[in-house]
Amino acid sequence: MKELIERIQKHGKILRNGILKVDSFINHQVDPVLMDACGREFARRFADVKATKVLTAEISGIAPAVTTALHLGIPVVYARKTKPVTMPDAVLLTLAPSHTKVVMTELIVSPEYLADGERVLIIDDFLASGATIMGLVRLAQTAGSQIVGIGTLIEKSFEGGRELLASLGVPIEALAVIKSMDDGQIIFDE
Amino acid sequence: MKELIERIQKHGKILRNGILKVDSFINHQVDPVLMDACGREFARRFADVKATKVLTAEISGIAPAVTTALHLGIPVVYARKTKPVTMPDAVLLTLAPSHTKVVMTELIVSPEYLADGERVLIIDDFLASGATIMGLVRLAQTAGSQIVGIGTLIEKSFEGGRELLASLGVPIEALAVIKSMDDGQIIFDE
After folding, report:
1. Which residues of A109-132 are buried (b: 16+ CB within 10 A; e: fewer)?
2. N or C terminus: fewer CB in 10 A for chain B?
3. What gap in Å lies between CA B75 and CA A27, rounded to an integer?
4. d(C-alpha B39, C-alpha B71), whole Å
5. Residue A85 and residue B15: Cβ atoms within 8 Å?
6. Is the separation of the CB atoms in A95 and A135 below 8 Å?
7. Do B86 and A32 touch (CB under 8 A)?
8. Are A121 and A53 in contact, with CB atoms under 8 Å apart?
């Protein structure tokens, strides 16, 4: 998606640890107009999968997941990383490595909102190793739901996430695919 | 706002600890159409305050803050509760009591995105004691920004938050004001 790629080119920064900093428009400060355009684009690309629910993980998946769900006219559920007091005692829980890969993070969904027979579209900010998204897949499958698609704003195609998720046999869409970040240069797969 | 009040009447639940459970449409599962309508209503009510940025706190403030910012056409910043690796070493940080009031929570904003002279509209899901919102006010004021309005989806007017925030002298808008939750009954101030 041209608009997102241009924004990454202009405002994305590669940090020393190989992390792509996009917190001026995606995950600390958010550009709502851009997120709305991304949500509209996801809704267009997944128009045929007949999703009944969008699933994401807190925190940075929430903005694009909400705009996607808005354009599809379906609810969105965000998996929590800590169990709030409002959740029932029995929950759906899985573990996924954190982005830094040092610790494991819990992903928790209330069974009230992820039901048997639901058709789930997963939306998140990044597809890198695919570990967080696989955690969401496990939660949905444990609930008896079916995954019908996976969409992320940005894919780092050199981290293998797409290969990990390929066995699911569902469409995987990324709005900006980065194939290399070597030498401080962001190279897109266009 | 009639639509939100009706939803709380229909799907809100009072838990034993006096907590209002609205996680089927606001803060775990989110109804994006309702959040969009709430964002439009906030944009209407705050049309004259000339806000340049929306500020909220992760996690449950994000959805209404993003839709409000979308309808105002300005960016939104969400304060983090843990400092991500993408943030610079020097940050704006304050402490606010958590909702359970047992522990203190950190609220962290990067000085990159909250600047001197910014006109800040605070949006959050709940106004109860006002402690979280006062934390956001301190962050904005430390940055040299000016608070120009405060909006929350739900206000529990019996918890004193509005009185705490009154000294700021800015408009405070809540889309659903609850004046009592005694005896398992939600009574709105209409």
Report:
1. bbbebbeeebbbbbbbbbbbbbbb
2. C
3. 12
4. 7
5. yes
6. yes
7. no
8. yes
| Cβ count near A94 (within 10 Å) | 19
The Cα B136–Cα B93 span in angstroms is 9
Residue B159 phi/psi, 5-degree rounding, is: -105, 5
Pull the structure tokens for residue B74. 């300005």
A23 part of contact set with chain B, CB < 8 Å = yes
ipTM: 0.96
The token duo for B45 is 């009510």
So what CATH class is A2-188?
alpha beta
> For residues B77 and B120, what is the distance between their CA atoms, to the nearest angstrom?
10
What is the pLDDT, as a whole number, of residue B16? 82
How many percent of chain A have pLDDT more than 70?
98
pLDDT value at residue A100: 62
Interface of A with B in 116-155 (CB under 8 A): none
Two tokens at A24?
């001026």
The pairing of beta strand A20-21 with beta strand A13-14: antiparallel
Which neighbouring-strand residues pair with A108?
A: A80, A93
To probe the interface with B, which of A11, A38, A86 has the most B CB atoms within 10 Å?
A86
pLDDT digits (tens, 9 = 90+) for A15-52: 987 899 999 999 999 999 999 999 999 999 999 999 99
The shortest CB-CB distance from A80 to any of B28, B77, B84 is to B28
Domain locations in chain B?
2-188
Are the C-beta atoms of residues B35 and B67 closer than 8 Å to each other?
yes
Nearest 10 degrees: Cα torsion B8, B14, B17, B20: 0
What part of A 25-64 touches B (C-beta under 8 Å)?
A: 25, 27-33, 35-36, 58-59, 62-63
Are the beta carbons of B32 and A113 separated by less than 8 Å?
no
Cβ distance A33 to B73 less than 8 Å, yes or no, reads yes
Of residues B30, B80, B110, nearest to A75 (C-beta): B30
Cα dihedral sign for B58, B59, B63, B64?
negative
